[in-house]
Design brief:
The complex is a heterodimer.
Chain A: H1 19-25, H2 29-57, H3 68-103, H4 111-119, H5 121-130, H6 149-152, H7 155-184, H8 197-228, H9 242-259, H10 262-276, H11 283-297, H12 312-340, H13 349-372, H14 374-380, H15 384-414, H16 420-447, H17 461-490
Chain B: H1 4-8, H2 11-20, H3 41-74, H4 90-119, E1 126-133, E2 136-141, E3 146-150, H5 156-159, E4 177-180, E5 185-191, E6 196-200, E7 205-209, E8 215-219, E9 225-230, E10 243-249, H6 251-273, H7 281-300, H8 318-321, H9 324-333, H10 350-361, H11 374-381
Parallel strand pairs in B: 1-5, 4-10
Antiparallel strand pairs in B: 1-2, 2-3, 5-8, 6-7, 9-10
Classes of the chains: A mainly alpha, B alpha+beta.
Chain lengths: 526, 382
């Protein structure tokens, strides 16, 4: 996406550097946003290839392509790379590009820190992918790192721990930058309760990151000490407790899933009003629902641990707290529908993906309600039902919102319109193959197929075959996305400043493509 | 659309039919897509609760999707819709905040009572201790003085697609857990190495097995039968290959099983203990190969190459080529440093232990030439 900032035309950067060195030293929020998004797309394909290898092995019962130990490495790294390498950086990329444009700020608050938080990612990715090539291979203990299994792993586990530390530092620095930008750099007249929903959702997300990432870093460090320095934090022989790790991990892990979905809510809240040509319904309640979801997320981690053997009272506390999450989430969904109500809708790709997001996210939401009931969760914990549930929220939720946001703002970033027809094909194929892959997993889970197994009893064969075919369809469809994006970067119909008829917001007041420096003098906001 | 019969076999038909007929356990294809038929009161409660939740969720989805689809059909720019400009409506916002709260409150009672019911492990008739190992289960009946291991019995050739797969592929074991019907069984669950999770879907019981800690759960089986489940917590390489099989017997047959177990153990222990015979190296290596294939090869590999770093190589390995006493010690007592290497002295008899030790020291290019006799093992036991 180099030409969006005038590099392709041979122009040297402001510090007189060219090529790779230019990008490494860039502190421009748009360029760093582009780096984040490019990194995310490549990690999305790395994690996606692992998913396809997993689905190839699961196409039929029996072991065909992968030995169990390698299969476990792929399930582990697929999860880690998708969460930390693909989805999180993608949202940070959106924040980098869009927050200054939407708030009327010239850049992020700390441009040099911004540069650093991006450049911590490639070494982390190299550590993660490189861990496949050390003795014993990559970590095979699941993305949740549960000890004592994770203590058994080889040096690949240490590389993973170090990678997670780097990613954690990157996230913490990024979160500080985003909070400071939102708090201090809004255009004059833009009060907190007037700023775009995307900024609100990112503000809550950034606070969640600040609360939980240091906790994850602590858990990882304790694991490292247990592995190498003879401590027994998680080893009962030395007075430790393996379940302690699960508490610390999920104290991070549950807010983490909201970190992955709240910015998606923000993107969808920007897009639906544009294509309904009607203001966002219930802005205030949207803000409070976002804060409520973020707040509740800190108190529900125990629902990932309903089978560890809590006393009844603890089981009940986490069950009630989890059920409550449905209330603010429901408010959000109803607000989006009310925004569409009595609007004047058109269905370009961003809107299609947003509506698709809503439909499938609601399905992921209701299976979440079913799983919140502890007794039922005990039957479904660690089965494919849970795999279906979180892919409905993470793929159909986060990823579809990312696609929606990409198509929505791509003309602003590149100055060209993407090809609408192909983008709509991308939507329909994604929607069909996504559901083909993951809907059947509900039935596999109900029937009793455990997660993370390389081979399965014969009664699960039919649905696994359907899911594998769907997965390959979904994977191949994403090549279409890359094609559409690359084509749009290279050229196409010129995009006007205000790309969409119903769009509101400061980002549409600057020309397309957005110039290298925008809002060097604060804009007027009413 | 084509004729109904061709449609019936299509994936969408399978999905639709499974939604319409949740109680059906199997389709014509033998595929299972719903809970196994409940066999305990806990499983019945879970199933009922799940159906209740499913209807509530179906209603919510129907309303949400209905409103969305109506809006998308009705309020299109292409139909000349003119956008209204309202931004909020206190009344409806309060209504749609309160309705979910009421639904959650309504669900709280049945959800709570199920949890309290599951957690009541008091007044059990039978106590069974279950220990997870990489990758097998141990069942101990402390009162009846019974203890045995339960391992996958599906032949390796079926897993490697060299043989056609049997009906209970990956769901069959050598020694199933045995319980009587109609009695309250309390299980104490723990693990020896990493976390496992013991699950029998038809019982509605799933309990993580945590090394160093004992957790409990309970069930009372309604009718005799064989009930199958799997380990559901990632526990390493063969996580997918450690099924749980429970055989529920009528109470008199259970009593007979307990009595029969005591006599057969008495017989086998006298046979093994009285074995003072000196075996040849060939005899020991032949039997050792069988034991190795069944117990050791999963981790140390058939070629003895291991899977470093967790499972070290035996070929030219430090212990396997070191002094005989060291080999016997680690095989019998396990490794103090690496919990993945378990103690085999309780699982194998003297002949089997002598055979496998001899096999390890004289295979994979190891050529110590020495051999362990059953009486050496017997001596090491004391």
């Amino acid at each position: 996406m180099a030409n969006t900032v005038g590099i392709a035309s041979g122009q040297t950067g402001e510090h007189g550097k060219k090529g790779l060195l230019y990008w490494i030293s860039s502190t421009n929020h748009k360029e760093i946003g582009t780096l984040y998004l490019g990194f995310s797309v490549s990690m999305f394909f790395v994690g996606g290839i692992m998913a396809l290898l997993i689905r190839a092995e699961l196409f039929q019962p029996g072991l065909q392509f992968l030995r169990p130990e390698l299969f476990n490495q792929f399930t582990t790294l697929h999860g880690l790379i998708m969460v930390f390498g693909a989805v999180m950086p993608a949202f940070v990329g959106f924040a980098n590009w869009q927050l200054p444009l939407m708030l009327g700020a010239p850049d992020m608050a700390f441009p040099r820190l911004n540069n650093m938080s991006f450049w911590l990612l490639p070494p982390a990715a190299i550590l993660l992918v490189g861990s496949f090539f050390v003795p014993g291979g990559a970590s095979a203990a699941g993305w949740t790192f549960y000890p004592p299994l994770s203590v058994q792993m080889g040096p690949g586990m240490d590389m993973t721990i170090f990678a997670v530390h780097l990613l954690g530092i990157s996230s913490i620095v990024g979160a500080l930058n985003i909070i400071t930008t939102i708090a201090n750099m809004r255009a004059p007249g833009m009060t907190m309760m007037k700023m775009p929903m995307f900024a609100w959702t990112w503000l809550v997300t950034a606070y969640l990151l600040l609360i939980v990432m240091p906790v994850l870093a602590g858990a990882m460090t304790m694991l490292l000490f247990d592995r190498h320095f003879g401590t027994h934090f998680f080893n009962a022989v030395g007075g430790g407790d393996p379940v302690l790790f699960q508490h610390i991990f999920w104290f991070f892990g549950h807010p983490e899933v909201y970190i992955l979905i709240l910015p998606a809510f923000g993107i969808v809240s920007s897009i639906i009003p544009t294509f309904a040509r009607k203001p966002l319904f219930g802005y205030r309640s949207m803000v409070f629902a976002t804060i409520a979801i973020g707040g509740l997320s800190i108190f529900v981690w125990g629902h990932h641990m309903f089978t560890v053997g809590f006393p009844a009272a603890v089981q009940l506390f986490y069950m009630y707290a989890t059920m409550l999450v449905a209330v603010p989430t429901g408010v959000k969904v109803f607000n989006w529908i009310a925004t569409m109500w009595k609007g004047s809708m058109t269905f370009e790709a961003p809107m299609l993906f947003s509506v698709g997001f809503l439909l499938v996210f609601v399905l992921g939401g209701v299976t979440g309600v079913i799983l919140s009931v502890a007794a039922v969760d005990i039957q479904l914990q660690d089965t494919y039902y849970v795999v279906a549930h979180f892919h409905y929220t993470m793929v159909a939720g986060s990823l579809f919102a990312l696609f929606a946001g990409t198509y929505y703002w791509l003309p602003k970033w590149t100055g060209y319109m993407y090809e609408e027809k192909l983008a709509q094909w991308h939507f329909w194929l994604s929607m069909i193959f996504f559901n083909m892959t993951f809907f059947v997993m509900h039935f596999l889970g109900l029937a009793g197929m455990p997660r993370r197994i390389p081979d399965y009893p014969l009664q699960f064969a039919n649905f696994n075959m359907i899911a594998s075919i769907g997965a390959f369809g979904f994977g191949i469809t994403q090549l279409l996305f890359v094609y559409v994006v690359v084509k749009c970067i290279r050229g196409g119909a010129k995009a006007p400043a205000k790309v969409w008829e119903g769009a509101t917001g400061l980002e549409w007041t600057v020309p397309s493509p957005a110039p290298h420096h925008t809002f060097t003098t604060p804009p007027h906001f009413e | 659309m084509q004729s109904f019969s061709s449609w019936k076999g299509s994936p969408s038909a399978i999905i639709l039919m499974s939604m319409l007929a949740p109680s059906a356990a199997t389709a014509s294809t033998g595929a299972r897509f719903w809970f196994q038929p409940p066999q305990t009161e806990i499983a019945h409660r879970i199933s009922d609760l799940h159906i209740l939740l499913l209807w509530i969720c179906a209603a919510i989805v129907a309303i949400v999707f209905g409103l969305m689809i109506f809006a998308m059909v009705r309020y299109r720019k292409s139909l000349g819709a003119v956008p209204a400009q309202f931004e909020s409506n206190k009344k409806v916002e309060i209504i749609w905040s309160i309705i979910p709260i009421l639904i959650v409150l309504g669900l709280a009672w049945p959800a709570t009572s199920a949890v309290i019911w599951m957690k009541n492990t008091s007044n059990a008739d039978i106590l069974i201790k279950i220990t997870g190992y990489q990758w097998k289960w141990q069942y101990e009946y402390p009162t009846e003085n019974i203890s045995f291991f339960s391992e996958l019995s599906t032949p390796r050739a079926q897993i490697d697609n060299l043989q056609s797969k049997g009906e209970n592929y990956l769901l069959e074991v050598d020694h199933p857990m045995v319980v009587p019907v109609g009695k309250k069984v309390r299980i104490l669950v723990t693990a020896n190495d990493v976390i496992h999770s013991w699950w029998v879907p038809a019982f509605g019981v799933k309990q993580d097995a945590i090394p160093g800690f004992i957790r409990d759960a309970w069930f009372r089986v309604d009718s005799p039968g064989i009930y199958r489940g799997q380990c559901v917590e990632l526990c390493g390489k063969d996580h997918g290959f450690m099924p749980v099989v429970v055989k529920a017997l009528p109470q008199d047959e259970y009593a007979a099983w307990v009595a029969g177990y005591a006599t057969s153990r008495a017989a086998s222990s006298t046979a093994a203990a009285g074995d003072a015979k000196n075996y040849t190296i060939e005899e020991l290596k032949t039997q050792g190969e069988t034991v190795y294939g069944a117990k050791c090869a999963a981790c140390h590999q058939p070629s003895g190459s291991g899977l470093p770093p967790t499972f070290p190589a035996l070929a030219h390995g430090k212990v396997a080529t070191g002094p005989m006493a060291g080999t016997i010690d680690i095989v019998m007592n396990g490794s103090k440093k690496n919990p993945a290497m378990m103690a085999w002295k309780t699982q194998l008899n003297d002949v089997e232990l002598a055979a496998v030790v001899t096999y390890i020291r004289n295979s994979f290019g190891n050529a110590s030439g020495d051999l362990a006799q059953p009486k050496d093992i017997a001596a090491a036991r004391h």
